Structure formats: C-alpha cells, structure tokens
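Protocol step 4 of 5: obtain the predicted structure for the target chain.
Materials: sequence only (see below). No template structures provided, no constraints applied. The aim of this step is simply to have a reference model before the mutagenesis design in step 5. Sequence pasted as it appears in the construct record:
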Amino acid sequence: LGITAALVLSYLFLPTEMSSSIFTLQEKAISNVNQNLQGQITGGVAKLDFFVRIFMNNMKVLFFCLIFSLLYGTGAIFILTWNASVIAVAIGGLIKSELIQVASFTGLTSISSYAGITAVSFLRYLTHGIFEIAAYFVIGLAGGILSIALIKHNLKEERVLVDALDLIFISVGILIFAGIVEVYLTPQLFS
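Step 4 output (structure tokens):
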C-alpha cells in the first residue's frame, strides 16, 4: 500500500512528460487490459467467462510469485512492486481524468474535488486489488517457506509441506474472492 501511494503521488505530481516516460510499461499494461475488457464487453462475453479470464490472469501472477519466492526468497517483492506500480498508474490515471472532468464542469478545481476523486479512485482499484495483493503476499510466504526448507534440506519433515500447501490454497481462495469482487462487486459500486 505504501508503494502504491508513493507511486500514485509520483504519477500525479511529476511533469506529464516525465511521468509518461517513467511509467510507460505500466501504461501499456493497463492499455492492454482495457483493450481486452472492451473486446469482451462488446463481444457479449458472460460475467462468468470474464471472471475466469481475470482469475486465470491472476493465477499466472500467483504462479510467478511462488516461483520467484521459491528461487529467490524475496523474489515475490518484485511481483508485488510491479503490481503496485500498475495499480498506482491506474489510480493516478483515473484521478487525472476525473479532475479534468470536474474542472470542465465547474470551471475551477477545488480541494474537495481533489480529495473526493482521490478517495474514489483508490477505492475503485483497491476494492479488489487489496485481496489480489494479499494473495500474492501469502503465496510469497509459501515460496519462502519452501525455499528455506530446500536450503536446510528439511523437506522430509511433513509439516513444512503441509504449511506451504495450506498457504498456497489460502492464496488461491483469496484470489477467487478477489476475482468475484472485481467482476461482480466493483462494477456495481463504481459504474
């Protein structure tokens, strides 16, 4: 959350050219996701299909978190930071577009507009994003446990594998819940 907040502020307050240069990859990732969503919405894909696509994409990220943390104990931090940066650019982009809209309607921008738009932007993406981040964090813990057990040649102890599998199943459960929130709840709250 701290990384996300810091990157949102960077995206908002750096000059446009600089923030576009720094956050080019994140903007491309968001653009790709938005294009896929538009294609699915206009193509009439059912919400269940949409959920499955979102969930499978998140499962890929979960898999990489597990592999990175298994191979390099703190490797999941890379995935968490990348996701935080993408979420930050999405939030910052929504804040900028909403502020432009408010300014065009009122002729000026006020402090209350900034605060309200910022809060709504954070809530829109963090409604489901907080659960995704939690799932990636939990899977990172599972990978870290397995990594340490491999280093110490402690995989024969049954409890290590059971604990790691428990964390893996918990993270998948959290990810399923995050997908449900993203597909069914977030559009109802913020459409």
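Step 4 remarks: The mean pLDDT is 82. Residues 128 and 184 are 10 Å apart (CA to CA).
Proceed to step 5.
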